Amino acid sequence: MDILTRRRFLVASGVVGATALAAGAAAYRLDDLLATAGDRDPQARTLVLVTLYGGNDGLNTVIPYADPAYHDARPDLAYPAEEVKRLDDEVGLNPALSGLHRLHGEGRLAVVRGVGYPRPDRSHFRSMDIWQTAQPERPGSTGWLGRWLDRAGGDPRLAVSFEPALPPLLAGERGAGASVPVTGRTSAKGLPESALTAFATAAPDESPARARAAACFADLRSVDTMIRQVRDAAAAEEPEDDAETPAATATGGASTPLDAQLDLVAQCVEAGVATRVFSVSLGGFDTHADEKQLQQVLLGQVDRALTRFADRMARTDAGRRVVVAVHSEFGRRVRANASDGTDHGTASDMLLLGTAVRGGQYGEPPSLTDLDDGDLKFTTDFRDVYATLLERVLDTDPGEVLAGWRGRLTGVL
Protein backbone atom coordinates (compact mmCIF):
# COMPACT_ATOMS: atom_id res chain seq x y z
CA MET A 1 0.00 0.00 0.00
CA ASP A 2 1.63 3.25 -1.12
CA ILE A 3 1.42 6.58 0.67
CA LEU A 4 -1.49 7.89 -1.39
CA THR A 5 -3.49 4.71 -0.87
CA ARG A 6 -2.72 4.85 2.86
CA ARG A 7 -3.99 8.42 3.01
CA ARG A 8 -7.20 7.49 1.19
CA PHE A 9 -7.65 4.58 3.57
CA LEU A 10 -7.36 6.92 6.55
CA VAL A 11 -9.92 9.34 5.16
CA ALA A 12 -12.36 6.59 4.16
CA SER A 13 -12.10 4.88 7.54
CA GLY A 14 -12.88 8.11 9.36
CA VAL A 15 -9.69 7.94 11.41
CA VAL A 16 -8.61 11.30 10.04
CA GLY A 17 -10.89 13.82 8.42
CA ALA A 18 -10.16 15.05 4.92
CA THR A 19 -10.22 18.66 6.15
CA ALA A 20 -7.49 18.01 8.71
CA LEU A 21 -5.36 16.16 6.17
CA ALA A 22 -5.73 19.02 3.72
CA ALA A 23 -4.70 21.49 6.40
CA GLY A 24 -1.58 19.53 7.23
CA ALA A 25 -0.75 18.88 3.60
CA ALA A 26 -0.67 22.56 2.71
CA ALA A 27 2.54 23.87 1.14
CA TYR A 28 4.65 24.26 4.25
CA ARG A 29 8.35 24.59 3.58
CA LEU A 30 11.46 24.51 5.70
CA ASP A 31 11.66 28.29 5.38
CA ASP A 32 8.21 28.54 6.96
CA LEU A 33 9.59 26.81 10.06
CA LEU A 34 12.80 28.83 10.15
CA ALA A 35 10.73 32.02 9.90
CA THR A 36 9.53 31.33 13.45
CA ALA A 37 13.08 31.29 14.87
CA GLY A 38 13.16 32.89 18.31
CA ASP A 39 9.37 32.89 18.59
CA ARG A 40 9.14 30.59 21.61
CA ASP A 41 9.79 30.42 25.33
CA PRO A 42 13.49 29.50 25.63
CA GLN A 43 12.65 27.33 28.65
CA ALA A 44 10.08 25.27 26.74
CA ARG A 45 10.81 21.64 26.01
CA THR A 46 10.50 19.90 22.64
CA LEU A 47 9.10 16.43 21.91
CA VAL A 48 10.46 14.27 19.08
CA LEU A 49 8.29 11.23 18.39
CA VAL A 50 9.99 8.37 16.51
CA THR A 51 7.65 5.73 15.07
CA LEU A 52 9.03 2.33 14.07
CA TYR A 53 6.40 1.07 11.63
CA GLY A 54 5.73 -2.63 11.19
CA GLY A 55 5.72 -3.88 14.77
CA ASN A 56 9.25 -4.00 16.19
CA ASP A 57 10.14 -7.16 18.13
CA GLY A 58 10.51 -5.82 21.67
CA LEU A 59 11.85 -9.08 23.10
CA ASN A 60 14.84 -8.95 20.77
CA THR A 61 15.30 -5.22 21.37
CA VAL A 62 15.21 -5.17 25.18
CA ILE A 63 16.27 -8.75 25.78
CA PRO A 64 15.40 -10.79 28.93
CA TYR A 65 18.56 -12.84 28.43
CA ALA A 66 18.52 -14.40 31.92
CA ASP A 67 14.98 -15.79 31.56
CA PRO A 68 14.96 -19.47 30.46
CA ALA A 69 11.48 -18.96 28.97
CA TYR A 70 12.96 -16.52 26.44
CA HIS A 71 15.43 -19.09 25.13
CA ASP A 72 12.86 -21.90 25.21
CA ALA A 73 10.34 -19.90 23.14
CA ARG A 74 12.76 -18.93 20.40
CA PRO A 75 15.78 -21.29 20.42
CA ASP A 76 17.24 -20.09 17.09
CA LEU A 77 16.11 -16.48 17.39
CA ALA A 78 17.21 -15.77 20.97
CA TYR A 79 20.48 -13.99 21.70
CA PRO A 80 22.96 -15.69 24.03
CA ALA A 81 23.85 -13.74 27.15
CA GLU A 82 27.39 -13.00 25.98
CA GLU A 83 26.13 -11.07 22.91
CA VAL A 84 23.68 -8.83 24.76
CA LYS A 85 24.50 -5.25 25.80
CA ARG A 86 23.64 -5.69 29.46
CA LEU A 87 21.57 -3.17 31.39
CA ASP A 88 21.53 -5.31 34.54
CA ASP A 89 21.75 -8.97 35.56
CA GLU A 90 18.51 -9.87 33.78
CA VAL A 91 17.96 -7.54 30.83
CA GLY A 92 20.09 -6.14 28.02
CA LEU A 93 19.88 -4.41 24.66
CA ASN A 94 20.23 -5.88 21.19
CA PRO A 95 23.88 -6.11 20.06
CA ALA A 96 23.18 -3.43 17.43
CA LEU A 97 22.26 -0.87 20.12
CA SER A 98 25.72 -0.05 21.44
CA GLY A 99 25.11 3.69 21.28
CA LEU A 100 21.86 3.49 23.24
CA HIS A 101 23.64 1.24 25.72
CA ARG A 102 26.14 4.04 26.28
CA LEU A 103 23.34 6.58 26.72
CA HIS A 104 21.75 4.30 29.34
CA GLY A 105 25.04 4.18 31.21
CA GLU A 106 25.17 7.99 31.11
CA GLY A 107 21.64 8.25 32.51
CA ARG A 108 20.12 9.58 29.26
CA LEU A 109 18.04 6.56 28.21
CA ALA A 110 14.89 5.30 29.95
CA VAL A 111 13.33 1.95 29.04
CA VAL A 112 9.59 1.74 29.76
CA ARG A 113 8.60 -1.92 30.11
CA GLY A 114 5.50 -3.76 28.91
CA VAL A 115 3.75 -0.87 27.18
CA GLY A 116 0.40 -1.61 25.56
CA TYR A 117 -3.36 -1.14 25.91
CA PRO A 118 -6.46 -3.17 26.84
CA ARG A 119 -7.89 -5.65 24.31
CA PRO A 120 -4.96 -5.32 21.91
CA ASP A 121 -5.42 -5.51 18.16
CA ARG A 122 -2.84 -7.26 15.95
CA SER A 123 -3.76 -5.37 12.78
CA HIS A 124 -1.03 -2.92 11.76
CA PHE A 125 -3.44 -0.17 10.75
CA ARG A 126 -5.90 -0.64 13.60
CA SER A 127 -3.20 -0.78 16.27
CA MET A 128 -1.37 2.25 14.87
CA ASP A 129 -4.67 4.13 14.72
CA ILE A 130 -5.14 3.32 18.41
CA TRP A 131 -1.63 4.52 19.26
CA GLN A 132 -2.01 7.70 17.23
CA THR A 133 -5.48 8.65 18.47
CA ALA A 134 -4.83 7.41 22.05
CA GLN A 135 -8.34 5.98 22.08
CA PRO A 136 -8.11 2.18 22.54
CA GLU A 137 -11.83 1.59 22.95
CA ARG A 138 -12.72 3.18 19.63
CA PRO A 139 -10.24 5.26 17.63
CA GLY A 140 -11.71 8.66 16.85
CA SER A 141 -11.02 11.16 14.10
CA THR A 142 -8.27 13.17 15.85
CA GLY A 143 -4.74 12.38 16.94
CA TRP A 144 -3.57 12.92 20.50
CA LEU A 145 -1.01 15.53 19.42
CA GLY A 146 -3.55 17.08 17.07
CA ARG A 147 -5.81 17.66 20.08
CA TRP A 148 -2.85 19.18 21.90
CA LEU A 149 -2.27 21.46 18.90
CA ASP A 150 -5.90 22.64 19.00
CA ARG A 151 -5.32 23.79 22.58
CA ALA A 152 -1.90 25.29 21.84
CA GLY A 153 -3.25 27.79 19.32
CA GLY A 154 -3.55 25.73 16.15
CA ASP A 155 -0.51 27.06 14.26
CA PRO A 156 0.49 24.05 12.10
CA ARG A 157 4.16 24.90 12.56
CA LEU A 158 3.94 23.96 16.24
CA ALA A 159 3.72 20.26 15.28
CA VAL A 160 5.73 19.17 12.25
CA SER A 161 6.16 15.91 10.37
CA PHE A 162 9.18 15.25 8.17
CA GLU A 163 7.39 12.21 6.73
CA PRO A 164 5.92 11.88 3.20
CA ALA A 165 2.33 12.11 4.49
CA LEU A 166 0.83 13.75 7.54
CA PRO A 167 0.51 11.11 10.28
CA PRO A 168 -2.94 10.90 11.92
CA LEU A 169 -1.48 11.74 15.33
CA LEU A 170 -1.04 15.40 14.22
CA ALA A 171 -4.64 15.85 13.03
CA GLY A 172 -6.85 17.90 15.34
CA GLU A 173 -10.50 18.92 15.34
CA ARG A 174 -9.89 22.34 13.78
CA GLY A 175 -6.65 21.84 11.89
CA ALA A 176 -3.47 19.81 11.77
CA GLY A 177 0.27 19.98 12.03
CA ALA A 178 2.54 20.88 9.14
CA SER A 179 3.81 18.23 6.75
CA VAL A 180 7.26 19.10 5.40
CA PRO A 181 8.22 16.04 3.33
CA VAL A 182 11.82 15.64 2.22
CA THR A 183 11.53 12.44 0.16
CA GLY A 184 11.27 11.77 -3.52
CA ARG A 185 12.60 15.14 -4.60
CA THR A 186 15.59 15.72 -6.84
CA SER A 187 17.03 18.84 -8.36
CA ALA A 188 17.50 19.24 -12.09
CA LYS A 189 20.78 17.76 -13.32
CA GLY A 190 22.99 18.95 -16.11
CA LEU A 191 22.04 22.61 -15.80
CA PRO A 192 24.57 25.30 -14.85
CA GLU A 193 24.43 26.82 -11.37
CA SER A 194 23.39 30.17 -12.84
CA ALA A 195 20.30 28.59 -14.42
CA LEU A 196 19.30 26.83 -11.21
CA THR A 197 19.74 30.07 -9.28
CA ALA A 198 17.55 31.89 -11.81
CA PHE A 199 14.79 29.28 -11.41
CA ALA A 200 14.86 29.89 -7.67
CA THR A 201 14.67 33.71 -7.93
CA ALA A 202 11.38 35.54 -8.48
CA ALA A 203 11.40 38.44 -10.92
CA PRO A 204 9.80 41.73 -9.77
CA ASP A 205 6.96 41.68 -12.32
CA GLU A 206 6.05 37.98 -12.10
CA SER A 207 2.62 36.77 -11.11
CA PRO A 208 2.05 35.49 -7.57
CA ALA A 209 1.87 31.92 -8.88
CA ARG A 210 5.27 32.21 -10.60
CA ALA A 211 6.77 33.82 -7.50
CA ARG A 212 5.44 30.96 -5.38
CA ALA A 213 6.95 28.44 -7.80
CA ALA A 214 10.34 30.14 -7.54
CA ALA A 215 10.15 30.10 -3.74
CA CYS A 216 9.26 26.40 -3.72
CA PHE A 217 12.17 25.61 -6.05
CA ALA A 218 14.54 27.56 -3.80
CA ASP A 219 13.35 25.58 -0.81
CA LEU A 220 13.73 22.34 -2.77
CA ARG A 221 17.39 23.13 -3.46
CA SER A 222 17.93 24.02 0.20
CA VAL A 223 16.45 20.73 1.45
CA ASP A 224 18.32 18.68 -1.17
CA THR A 225 21.60 20.28 -0.11
CA MET A 226 21.03 19.50 3.57
CA ILE A 227 20.00 15.90 2.89
CA ARG A 228 23.06 15.41 0.66
CA GLN A 229 25.35 16.82 3.37
CA VAL A 230 23.88 14.47 5.96
CA ARG A 231 24.33 11.43 3.72
CA ASP A 232 27.87 12.41 2.74
CA ALA A 233 28.80 12.89 6.38
CA ALA A 234 27.36 9.52 7.31
CA ALA A 235 29.21 7.81 4.45
CA ALA A 236 32.48 9.39 5.53
CA GLU A 237 32.07 8.37 9.17
CA GLU A 238 30.79 4.81 8.86
CA PRO A 239 32.30 1.68 7.32
CA GLU A 240 30.72 -0.13 4.38
CA ASP A 241 27.86 -2.45 5.32
CA ASP A 242 27.21 -5.38 3.02
CA ALA A 243 23.62 -5.75 4.26
CA GLU A 244 21.06 -4.02 2.10
CA THR A 245 19.04 -1.23 3.65
CA PRO A 246 15.48 -2.49 3.88
CA ALA A 247 12.82 -0.29 2.39
CA ALA A 248 9.86 0.98 4.33
CA THR A 249 7.03 -1.52 4.09
CA ALA A 250 3.34 -1.01 3.35
CA THR A 251 2.87 -0.47 7.06
CA GLY A 252 4.44 2.97 6.81
CA GLY A 253 7.67 4.78 7.55
CA ALA A 254 9.47 7.55 5.74
CA SER A 255 11.85 6.48 2.98
CA THR A 256 14.27 9.25 3.91
CA PRO A 257 16.90 7.85 6.30
CA LEU A 258 16.09 8.43 9.94
CA ASP A 259 19.34 10.28 10.55
CA ALA A 260 18.48 12.73 7.74
CA GLN A 261 15.07 13.42 9.28
CA LEU A 262 16.63 13.94 12.71
CA ASP A 263 19.27 16.24 11.24
CA LEU A 264 16.49 18.54 10.05
CA VAL A 265 14.94 18.37 13.51
CA ALA A 266 18.29 19.30 15.04
CA GLN A 267 18.70 22.29 12.75
CA CYS A 268 15.23 23.51 13.68
CA VAL A 269 15.89 23.09 17.40
CA GLU A 270 19.21 24.91 17.17
CA ALA A 271 17.58 27.74 15.21
CA GLY A 272 15.01 28.18 17.99
CA VAL A 273 11.93 27.64 15.83
CA ALA A 274 8.48 27.69 17.43
CA THR A 275 7.87 23.98 16.76
CA ARG A 276 7.24 22.00 19.96
CA VAL A 277 6.59 18.57 18.38
CA PHE A 278 8.41 16.75 15.58
CA SER A 279 7.33 13.43 14.06
CA VAL A 280 9.82 11.17 12.24
CA SER A 281 9.74 7.49 11.34
CA LEU A 282 11.40 4.37 10.00
CA GLY A 283 9.63 1.38 8.45
CA GLY A 284 10.45 -2.24 7.75
CA PHE A 285 9.91 -3.90 11.15
CA ASP A 286 7.32 -6.47 10.04
CA THR A 287 9.76 -9.36 10.51
CA HIS A 288 7.78 -12.54 9.85
CA ALA A 289 10.80 -14.36 8.41
CA ASP A 290 14.59 -14.31 8.81
CA GLU A 291 14.18 -11.71 11.52
CA LYS A 292 17.49 -11.72 13.32
CA GLN A 293 19.70 -10.18 10.65
CA LEU A 294 17.03 -7.84 9.28
CA GLN A 295 16.11 -6.45 12.68
CA GLN A 296 19.75 -5.97 13.57
CA VAL A 297 20.28 -3.89 10.42
CA LEU A 298 17.23 -1.78 11.23
CA LEU A 299 18.14 -1.36 14.88
CA GLY A 300 21.64 -0.38 13.81
CA GLN A 301 20.15 2.47 11.78
CA VAL A 302 17.99 3.51 14.74
CA ASP A 303 20.97 3.37 17.09
CA ARG A 304 23.25 5.49 14.92
CA ALA A 305 20.55 8.08 14.21
CA LEU A 306 19.36 8.42 17.82
CA THR A 307 22.78 8.51 19.46
CA ARG A 308 24.12 11.04 16.96
CA PHE A 309 21.04 13.18 17.53
CA ALA A 310 21.20 12.86 21.33
CA ASP A 311 24.88 13.79 21.43
CA ARG A 312 24.28 16.78 19.17
CA MET A 313 21.35 17.95 21.30
CA ALA A 314 23.42 17.70 24.47
CA ARG A 315 25.68 20.50 23.23
CA THR A 316 23.11 23.34 23.39
CA ASP A 317 20.62 24.68 25.95
CA ALA A 318 17.73 24.19 23.53
CA GLY A 319 18.90 20.67 22.71
CA ARG A 320 19.09 19.71 26.36
CA ARG A 321 15.35 20.41 26.58
CA VAL A 322 14.53 17.88 23.86
CA VAL A 323 12.85 14.58 24.80
CA VAL A 324 12.76 11.74 22.26
CA ALA A 325 10.09 9.02 22.52
CA VAL A 326 10.40 5.83 20.43
CA HIS A 327 7.52 3.41 19.87
CA SER A 328 6.02 0.85 17.48
CA GLU A 329 2.40 -0.22 16.96
CA PHE A 330 2.91 -3.52 18.78
CA GLY A 331 5.55 -6.07 19.71
CA ARG A 332 5.79 -9.62 18.41
CA ARG A 333 4.61 -12.96 19.76
CA VAL A 334 6.80 -14.61 22.38
CA ARG A 335 7.32 -17.84 20.44
CA ALA A 336 9.20 -17.77 17.14
CA ASN A 337 7.43 -19.01 14.03
CA ALA A 338 8.63 -21.67 11.61
CA SER A 339 10.30 -19.09 9.33
CA ASP A 340 12.87 -17.82 11.84
CA GLY A 341 10.72 -14.79 12.46
CA THR A 342 7.91 -13.65 14.74
CA ASP A 343 4.27 -12.84 14.15
CA HIS A 344 2.19 -9.87 15.31
CA GLY A 345 2.02 -9.59 19.08
CA THR A 346 0.97 -7.10 21.72
CA ALA A 347 2.96 -5.35 24.46
CA SER A 348 6.48 -4.05 23.93
CA ASP A 349 8.84 -1.42 25.33
CA MET A 350 9.08 2.32 24.72
CA LEU A 351 12.34 4.26 24.82
CA LEU A 352 12.70 7.80 26.13
CA LEU A 353 16.01 9.60 25.72
CA GLY A 354 17.67 12.95 26.11
CA THR A 355 19.48 15.03 28.71
CA ALA A 356 16.12 15.87 30.33
CA VAL A 357 15.34 12.16 30.86
CA ARG A 358 16.20 10.29 34.06
CA GLY A 359 17.65 7.09 32.72
CA GLY A 360 16.82 3.60 33.94
CA GLN A 361 14.01 1.09 33.67
CA TYR A 362 10.39 1.95 34.41
CA GLY A 363 7.32 -0.21 34.72
CA GLU A 364 6.94 -3.91 35.40
CA PRO A 365 8.58 -6.37 32.97
CA PRO A 366 5.84 -8.61 31.49
CA SER A 367 5.93 -12.32 32.25
CA LEU A 368 7.05 -14.69 29.50
CA THR A 369 5.08 -17.58 31.00
CA ASP A 370 1.83 -15.93 32.15
CA LEU A 371 0.58 -15.13 28.65
CA ASP A 372 -2.65 -14.15 26.96
CA ASP A 373 -3.09 -16.67 24.13
CA GLY A 374 0.65 -16.67 23.51
CA ASP A 375 1.05 -12.90 23.86
CA LEU A 376 2.55 -10.69 26.53
CA LYS A 377 0.15 -8.99 28.94
CA PHE A 378 0.80 -5.27 29.04
CA THR A 379 1.90 -3.80 32.37
CA THR A 380 2.09 -0.09 31.42
CA ASP A 381 -0.76 1.66 29.61
CA PHE A 382 0.65 3.78 26.78
CA ARG A 383 -1.58 6.64 27.90
CA ASP A 384 0.53 6.85 31.08
CA VAL A 385 3.51 7.65 28.88
CA TYR A 386 1.55 10.12 26.74
CA ALA A 387 0.18 11.87 29.82
CA THR A 388 3.69 12.27 31.21
CA LEU A 389 4.95 13.73 27.92
CA LEU A 390 2.00 16.12 27.70
CA GLU A 391 2.45 17.29 31.27
CA ARG A 392 6.24 17.39 31.58
CA VAL A 393 7.30 18.24 28.03
CA LEU A 394 4.37 20.11 26.45
CA ASP A 395 3.13 21.87 29.61
CA THR A 396 -0.45 20.71 29.05
CA ASP A 397 -3.10 19.19 31.29
CA PRO A 398 -3.24 15.59 29.98
CA GLY A 399 -6.87 15.22 31.02
CA GLU A 400 -7.93 17.75 28.38
CA VAL A 401 -6.26 15.71 25.62
CA LEU A 402 -6.69 12.16 26.90
CA ALA A 403 -10.32 12.25 28.06
CA GLY A 404 -9.53 12.72 31.73
CA TRP A 405 -6.75 10.10 31.92
CA ARG A 406 -5.00 10.22 35.31
CA GLY A 407 -2.15 7.71 34.99
CA ARG A 408 1.48 8.88 34.89
CA LEU A 409 5.03 7.54 34.78
CA THR A 410 6.73 8.78 37.90
CA GLY A 411 10.32 9.98 38.04
CA VAL A 412 11.28 9.70 34.38
CA LEU A 413 11.10 13.47 33.57
Automatic annotation (TrEMBL):
Residues 245-254 have a biased composition (Low complexity). The keyword Signal applies. Keywords: Signal. Residues 1-22 form the signal peptide. Residues 232-254 are annotated as: Disordered. Residues 235-244 have a biased composition (Acidic residues). It holds the Pfam family DUF1501. It comes from the Bacteria. This is Uncharacterized conserved protein, DUF1501 family. It comes from Micromonospora coxensis.
